[in-house]
Amino acid sequence: MVKQRIASLGSLTLSIMLVGACSSGDGGSLTANGEKSIEAGSAETALKEPVQITIYYPWSGYPRETFMETYGNYIVKKYPNLSINYIQSGTGATMDELIASKTELDLIMTTSNAYQSLQDRGLNGDITELAKKYKYDFNRLDPIVYELTKALEPGKMAGLPFKVNAPGFFYNKDLFDKFGVAYVKDGMTWDEVYETAKKLTREDGGIKYRGFGIRTTNFITFNQLSLPRLDAGSKAAFFTAEWKSFLENFIRFSQLPGFAPTEKGTGIGGPSLDMFAKDRTLAMLVQMNSDWPKEEQGVKMNWDAVTFPEFKSRPGVGPQPEAVYFVMPSTSKKKDAAFLAMSALTDEELQFQAAKSGAAPVLNNTKWREVYGSQEPNLKGRNAAALVPVKYAATNGINQYNAIAETNIAGAVNSVILGTTDMNSALREAEEKTNKTIEEKLKAK
To answer: How far is CA 152 from CA 49, 56, 134, 159, in A?
Structure first.
């Protein structure tokens, strides 16, 4: 998962060549002499002269090497005449500092959940006309991802997605072996996982082992039932029977005999990751699928993955996607060059190449699943493709105040787990708190 932490500044200039392919499909046509003419809407026209664009990565953890190996080298090979100034967030290069210094940004990486921060700073844009100009085919995109992209800013096409994250389901095989429990498998329901967790929540040799935990509150954000946190009027919409049933599905894991939840470890939140990857006392973990255990980060464990467990009412449906985009600010002065660069990232050849490294594609063509993770050492020999849902749940809408609701829903869940209140009271209080906070923010505008 893309993590919003500020890291050291990384700046690089990539000599990326961006000339259109020689086929007439780039917008050119052949003259009577067999020479290719240049027409409006072609890469040759846009990049007839050298152009440099600036790409901004507003978090940490995405160094030059990773960008180049996964995406940059492909663009370098495809196109001549464009250089890219790549800036990563860090001291002196936060988004606000770049705005203050009037640094011109042409492409900014963001996610469906982080897009609001760009809007708030006037860094949003619309590529609708450019897509028409270069005849970009949106049918290549997964339908759910496409709908999510349109929902970023209704009435506009804010950017283009190039990878997708979603919650994934991981398990520690050693703990299953230790207690003689059959491994979880693809296609299981949450009820079946619950029965498995019962067998793994126990004490042995003075050590407490727990069957199941969740690393973050993203199970709320990307919930499989597509339940909205807020309604169209930015009012809390989660004090419902549907939300109650959904949340109780997860609460029950932390209420199993022997789980013994505490304020520092309810089974939902950061401590679950340590229990899984460090202490090795948690058997099954939900976290973003891009956060698989990595040996180069010191996590060496016997783990594997299965498809995200299903609700009986939604067979075959996984969680909602979190798309990762390149957005072009309206202030960019090099829109054509920037659009060509961002659209290249959705080429089928590159998307399949990125899939081999563990980046889930945005394509409607799902044949990439056959090669997913094949070149990522940490995924080799594992059920890697299971980390990416075969079918994403429909998105439940983007609202700048969704995070407020999510925080309060998570607080309600943890209070129920700890036994300090009941579910109805917890959700009612969370709704009241959410509405009050949103009203205060609206008044302050």
So the answer is: 33, 19, 22, 9
d(CA 283, CA 174): 8
Say yes or no: 264 and 289 in one domain.
yes
What percentage of the chain has pLDDT greater than the value 70? 91
> With 0-12 CB in 10 A as exposed, 13-18 as middle and 19+ as buried, what is 241?
exposed
pLDDT of 440 above 70: yes
Asked whether residue 337 falls in the same domain as residue 309, the answer is: no
Rounded to a whole number, what is the distance in angstroms from the first to the last CA of the chain? 31
Which of helix, strand or coil describes residue 251? helix
pLDDT digits (tens, 9 = 90+) for 23-55: 333 444 443 444 343 344 788 788 788 889 899
CATH of the domain at 84: 3.40.190.10
| Full domain range(s) for residue 433 | 167-319+400-444
d(CA 108, CA 121): 12
Is beta strand 51-57 parallel, antiparallel or unpaired with respect to 107-111? parallel
Return the amino acid letter for 153: E
* Cβ neighbours of residue 7 closer than 8 Å, sequence gap 6 or more: 59, 60, 61, 88, 89, 90
Residue 91: pLDDT above 50?
yes
